[in-house]
DNA sequence: CACTCCCGCCAATTA
DNA sequence: TAATTGGCGGGAGTG
C-alpha cells in the first residue's frame, strides 16, 4: 500500500513540497519530494486502493496473516535483520519489501517488528547523531512516514519525544529540523536541574528508603502537581519566545517525556518503575485513581520509553519488589553533564547558566547549621526561569493570570528550597553536626529582634504537615528545637542567625512568606483558623508567643499534630477568604527583575498560598496588588476578627504598615524530606545586590532567610531580617545587624501578620534539628539565591534598610483531617484545574478561572492534604 | 493472564 | 474548511 501511495504521492507532493521544501534536507530523504504527500493515503480516494480502505478490508476479511503480510511489506524487514546496524537506508526497504512480500508473509512481521522502538531506530538511523552545524537537516514528516512505511501518527510519537529532548524542533508544518545530539547533554542537564527541583525531594526520599514505591509514588504525586504546572520548562525555556507555542495545549507527550527523563536524572538509582512514573505523571492523581487514566499513562510511557530506548538513554529492566516484579527502566545515558548537578553539592556557584536560561542561575544557599556549619546549596533554576512574558506579567500585575507562571516558579523555588534543605541536612549529618540549624534560640533574645520574635511569635498556623508518604516519622520530625524561647513551643523557635538575614525555624515545610502583610489579613486569617481548628490558633494570632506555646503544649504535643489541626483550618480560611494568590514574591528571573525597589512597600504580601504557588513577583506592583487583594478579601470576610490579632505589644513596634513599602517578603521553604528540619525563608525584598555570590560573607547574602525547624513552625513567629538592603553591611557574626534586628522587632511583626502558608509538607525533616543559634557564628549563612531569587531580591530591595518582620501565619495546606472540609470537597473544581496536566495547567484559561477564586489555592492545598493525610501525628 | 504497546479514531489546532 | 497534531484507549501480540 505504502509503496503504492508513495508512488502516487510523489507526484503530488512536489507541489506542496516545493514551497515547503525550503530546507533542503540533507540527510533527509533521498527522495526529492519528501514532503508531505498530503494525506493521500487517508484521503478518500475513490480508488479502492486507498490504504485505509484496503487495510480495513483486509483486516476485516483477512486473516491475521494477511494483515501481517501487508504490514511487513511496509517495511520493517531490514530492521529486523539488523537492528543494530542502523540501516541507514531505510528508504530502500520499501522496495525490498515489494519483492519480498512473500517472504514477509512467512516471516510474519511480529509485533516487535513494528514496534515504536524499532521504528524510532530507523528514524534515527536516517540522521546523524552529530550533524554538522552548517547543515540543516529538515525532516518531512510525510516523507519519513512514507519511507518508514508507517502512518504519520507514529512519526509524531517519535518526533514528540525527540523534541522533548531537543533533538529535533518543529520548524513548520510537517517540517522538523534535526539537531542531533549536540544539545542533548545540555538538555539533560536542564532536565536534571528541573527535575531536582520538582522531584528532587521525592527522589531523595526514595533513595533513603528503599521503597520507592509508595512513598515515592505518593510523594511524587504531591509534588507533581507543582511541577506539572509548569509547562515544559526545558523546552519552552529555551525559547521563551516561542511562548506562543506554549499557549497551545500542552503537549503532553512531550511534557511527559521530559518529566520521565527528569525522574531518571534525579533518581540516584537511575531506575524508575513504570507505575511510579505513571503515578507521578498523572496529573490529578487522585487517590481515586482513575484506573483508566493510569493505564493510559502507562501506555504513553511505553511509547516514550521505546523512543528513549532507541536513543540509548534507557533500557528496560525489572525491579523486583516484595510485591513482585515490576517493569522499570534504567537510565543508561549520560549522567553527568557539565556539572550542574553538582551545584547542589554546593560546589561552584558558577553561574552556570542553564542552557536556555540566561541566568547563571545558580543559587547558593548557605545555611548555618548549628551555627557553625554552613551548607551551601547551589541550585540553578533552569527551566524555572520564566519566559519573558511571564516575567512581564508578573511584574505588571499581581493578580493577573500570569500567576500561573509565577506559581510555577514558586513551586520550583520551593522545590529548590527543599532540595537545598535536604542537602543541608545530609551535609549536616555527615558533618556530624548535630544541631543542624542555628536556630535562634537566640540567646540573647533581646539582642536580636529575633528574640522577641519567639515570643512575639507570629501566630503561625502550623505549617508543617507530616509527609504523607513519609514512612518514617519524618513527619513528626518536629524536632524540637531547643530554642529557649521557643521552648514553650515545642518546635522551634525561630532563631535568628546572627548576621544572617535568615531565620531558622524548626519546621520543615516550605513556606512562602510575605512580608508586609497587612495585619488584617493575618489576623483574620489567624482568627479564622483559630476558630475552626484551634482556638489556639486564634490565640496565637492574638498573642503569638503565648499562644504558640499554648498550642504547642496542648495541641502540639507533637508538632506535627498541632500543625495538622491548625493548618487545615487556616488553609481553608485562607483559601476561602483570600483569593490572593501568593503574596510572595518570587524572583523569577534572576536578572531581570526589575520590579524591585518599588516593591518595598507592597512587597509584603500577606499571605502566600502555596497551593497557588503564586508568587508575586517582587515587582512592586504585583505585591501590592496581591496584598491589597488579599487584604481585601480577608478583610471583608473577616474583618471582624481581625481586630483581635494584634499581638502583644512588642510585636507591634513596627507594625508593619501594611502599606509600608518595605514589607519584606519571604519565601519559606518547606523542608523536604531530606532537609531535615530546615526551612528557609527568603525575603523577596532583599537588597538587590545581595545575591552576591560571595558566599562567605553574610553580608553577601542579600537574601534573608529564615531557617525554621520543621516542627517549630507552628508556633514560631517568623523573623525576617532584612539584611539586605545593605546586605553588605554584613552583620557581624554573632549579632544580627542592628538594622536587621530592628526590623525584626516583634512588634513590627505583630502588627503585620504575615501569613505563611505552607505547601504541603512534602517531607518532614527527619532530623530534628535543634535549633541552636550561634550568634557569634560567622556562619553567615550566605545564601545564594538562585538567580531567580537573586533577582527577586534585587528587585525587591527594600528602600528602607529595615525589613519588618511580620508575624506570619502558617497554614498547613496539607492537612486534611483537621479541616472539616476536605480539600476536595471544598473545591473540587479547582482541584482539577490545578492538577491538570502540565499542558492543561499551562493553559492560561484554566488559571484564569481559578485565579479569581481561592479555589485554586484550595485545590492545591487539597491535593496536598490528601496526600499528606498520612502525616504522623 | 499480565505485560506491552500497536493502531487508528477523532478532537483540538493550525494553516 | 482542510490539514496537521496528537490524546486516547481498544484490544491484539507476547511470554
CATH architecture of the domain at 116-209 and 248-331: Orthogonal Bundle
Structural class: alpha+beta
At the first level of CATH, what is the class of the domain at 116-209 and 248-331? Mainly Alpha
The dominant shape is elongated
What's the story with the biggest beta sheet?
5 strands, mixed
The overall pLDDT, averaged over residues, is 43
Strand proportion: 5-15%
- What value does the Rg take, in angstroms? 28 Å
Uncertain spans: 1-106, 205-248, 339-873
Question: Can you say what the CATH homologous superfamily of the domain at 116-209 and 248-331 is?
Answer: Winged helix-like DNA-binding domain superfamily/Winged helix DNA-binding domain
Give the helix proportion (percent range). Answer: 40-55%
Instruction: Tell me how many strands there are.
Output: 18
Briefly note the CATH topology name of the domain at 116-209 and 248-331.
Arc Repressor Mutant, subunit A
Oligomerization: single chain
Terminal Cα span: 66 Å
Total of helices: 34
Amino acid at each position: 500500500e505504502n509503496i503504492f501511495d508513495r508512488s502516487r504521492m510523489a507526484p503530488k507532493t512536489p507541489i506542496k513540497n516545493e514551497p515547503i521544501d525550503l530546507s533542503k534536507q540533507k540527510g533527509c530523504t533521498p527522495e526529492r519530494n519528501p514532503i508531505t504527500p498530503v494525506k493521500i493515503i487517508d484521503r478518500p480516494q475513490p480508488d479502492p486502493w486507498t490504504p485505509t480502505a484496503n487495510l480495513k478490508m483486509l483486516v476485516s476479511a483477512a486473516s491475521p496473516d494477511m494483515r501481517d503480510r501487508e504490514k511487513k511489506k511496509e517495511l520493517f524487514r531490514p530492521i529486523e535483520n539488523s537492528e543494530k546496524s542502523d540501516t541507514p537506508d531505510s528508504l530502500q526497504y520499501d522496495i525490498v519489501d515489494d519483492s519480498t512480500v512473500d517472504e514477509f508473509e512467512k516471516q510474519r512481521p511480529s509485533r516487535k517488528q513494528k514496534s515504536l522502538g524499532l521504528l524510532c531506530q530507523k528514524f534515527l538511523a536516517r540522521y546523524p547523531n552529530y550533524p554538522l552545524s552548517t547543515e540543516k537537516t529538515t525532516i518531512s514528516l510525510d516523507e519519513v512516514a512514507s519511507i518508514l512505511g508507517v502512518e504519520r501518527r507514529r512519526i509524531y510519537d517519535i518526533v514528540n519525544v525527540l523534541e522533548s529532548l531537543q533533538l529535533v524542533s518543529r520548524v513548520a508544518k510537517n517540517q522538523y529540523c534535526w539537531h542531533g545530539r549536540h544539545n542533548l547533554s545540555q538538555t539533560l542537564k536542564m532536565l536534571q536541574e528541573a527535575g531536582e527541583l520538582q522531584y528532587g525531594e521525592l527522589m531523595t526520599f526514595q533513595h533513603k528508603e528503599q521503597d520507592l514505591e509508595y512513598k515515592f509514588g505518593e510523594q511524587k504525586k504531591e509534588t507533581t502537581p507543582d511541577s506539572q504546572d509548569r509547562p515544559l520548562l526545558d523546552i519552552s525555556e529555551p525559547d521563551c519566545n516561542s511562548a506562543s507555542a506554549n499557549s497551545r495545549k500542552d503537549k503532553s507527550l512531550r511534557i511527559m517525556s521530559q518529566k520521565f527523563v527528569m525522574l531518571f536524572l534525579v533518581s540516584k538509582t537511575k531506575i524508575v518503575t513504570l507505575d511510579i512514573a505513571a503515578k507521578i505523571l498523572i496529573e490529578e492523581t487522585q487517590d481515586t485513581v482513575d484506573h483508566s487514566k493510569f493505564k493510559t499513562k502507562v501506555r504513553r510511557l511505553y511509547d516514550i520509553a521505546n523512543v528513549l530506548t532507541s536513543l540509548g538513554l534507557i533500557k528496560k529492566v525489572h525491579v523486583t519488589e516484595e510485591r513482585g516484579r515490576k517493569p522499570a527502566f534504567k537510565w543508561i545515558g549520560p549522567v553527568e553533564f557539565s556539572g550542574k548537578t553538582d551545584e547542589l553539592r554546593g560546589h561552584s556557584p558558577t553561574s552556570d547558566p542553564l542552557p536556555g536560561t540566561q541566568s547563571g542561575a545558580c543559587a547558593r544557599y548557605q545555611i548555618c547549621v548549628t551555627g557553625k556549619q554552613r551548607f551551601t546549596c547551589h541550585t540553578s533554576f533552569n527551566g524555572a526561569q520564566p519566559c519573558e512574558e511571564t516575567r512581564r506579567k508578573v511584574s505588571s500585575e499581581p493578580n493577573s493570570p500570569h500567576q500561573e507562571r509565577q506559581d510555577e516558579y514558586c513551586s520550583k523555588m520551593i522545590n529548590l528550597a527543599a532540595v537545598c534543605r535536604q542537602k543541608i541536612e545530609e551535609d549536616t549529618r555527615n558533618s556530624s553536626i548535630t544541631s543542624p540549624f542555628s536556630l535562634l534560640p537566640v540567646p540573647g533574645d533581646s539582642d536580636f529582634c529575633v528574640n522577641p520574635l519567639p515570643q512575639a511569635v507570629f501566630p503561625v498556623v502550623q505549617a508543617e504537615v507530616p509527609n504523607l508518604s513519609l514512612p518514617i516519622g519524618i513527619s513528626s520530625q518536629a524536632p524540637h528545637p531547643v530554642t529557649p524561647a521557643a521552648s514553650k513551643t515545642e518546635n522551634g523557635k525561630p532563631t535568628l542567625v546572627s548576621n544572617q538575614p535568615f531565620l531558622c525555624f524548626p519546621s520543615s515545610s516550605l513556606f512562602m512568606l510575605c512580608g508586609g502583610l497587612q495585619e488584617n489579613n493575618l489576623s483574620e486569617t489567624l482568627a479564622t483558623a483559630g476558630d475552626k481548628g484551634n482556638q489556639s490558633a486564634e490565640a496565637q494570632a492574638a498573642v503569638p508567643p503565648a499562644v504558640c506555646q499554648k498550642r504547642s503544649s496542648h495541641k502540639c504535643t507533637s508538632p506535627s499534630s498541632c500543625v495538622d489541626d491548625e493548618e487545615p483550618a487556616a488553609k481553608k480560611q485562607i483559601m476561602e477568604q483570600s483569593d490572593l494568590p501568593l503574596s510572595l514574591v518570587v524572583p523569577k528571573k534572576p536578572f531581570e527583575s526589575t520590579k524591585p525597589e518599588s516593591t518595598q512597600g507592597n512587597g509584603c504580601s500577606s499571605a502566600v498560598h502555596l497551593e497557588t504557588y503564586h508568587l508575586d513577583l517582587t515587582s512592586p506592583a504585583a505585591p501590592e496588588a496581591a496584598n491589597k487583594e488579599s487584604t481585601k478579601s480577608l478583610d471583608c470576610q473577616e474583618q471582624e476578627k481581625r481586630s483581635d490579632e494584634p499581638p502583644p505589644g512588642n510585636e507591634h513596634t513596627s507594625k508593619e504598615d501594611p502599606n509600608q513599602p518595605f514589607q519584606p517578603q519571604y519565601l519559606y521553604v518547606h523542608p523536604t524530606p531530606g532537609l531535615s528540619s530546615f526551612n528557609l525563608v527568603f525575603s523577596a525584598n532583599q537588597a538587590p545586590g545581595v545575591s552576591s555570590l560571595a558566599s562567605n560573607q553574610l553580608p553577601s547574602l542579600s537574601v534573608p532567610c529564615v531557617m525554621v525547624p520543621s516542627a517549630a513552625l507552628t508556633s514560631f513567629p517568623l523573623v525576617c531580617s532584612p539584611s539586605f538592603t545593605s546586605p553588605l553591611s554584613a552583620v557581624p557574626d554573632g549579632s544580627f545587624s542592628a538594622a536587621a534586628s530592628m526590623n525584626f522587632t516583634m512588634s513590627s511583626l505583630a502588627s503585620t501578620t504575615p501569613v505563611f502558608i505552607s505547601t504541603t509538607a512534602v517531607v518532614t525533616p527527619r532530623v530534628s534539628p535543634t535549633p541552636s543559634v550561634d550568634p557569634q557564628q560567622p556562619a553567615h549563612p550566605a545564601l545564594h539565591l538562585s538567580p531567580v531569587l537573586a533577582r527577586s531580591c534585587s528587585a525587591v530591595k527594600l528602600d528602607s534598610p529595615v525589613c519588618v518582620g511580620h508575624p506570619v501565619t502558617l497554614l498547613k495546606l496539607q492537612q486534611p483531617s483537621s479541616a472539616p472540609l476536605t480539600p476536595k470537597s471544598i473545591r473540587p473544581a479547582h482541584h482539577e484545574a490545578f492538577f491538570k496536566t502540565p499542558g492543561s495547567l499551562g493553559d492560561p484559561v484554566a488559571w484564569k478561572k481559578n485565579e479569581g477564586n481561592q479555589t485554586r489555592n484550595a485545590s492545591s492545598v487539597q491535593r496536598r492534604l490528601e496526600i499528606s493525610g498520612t502525616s504522623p501525628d
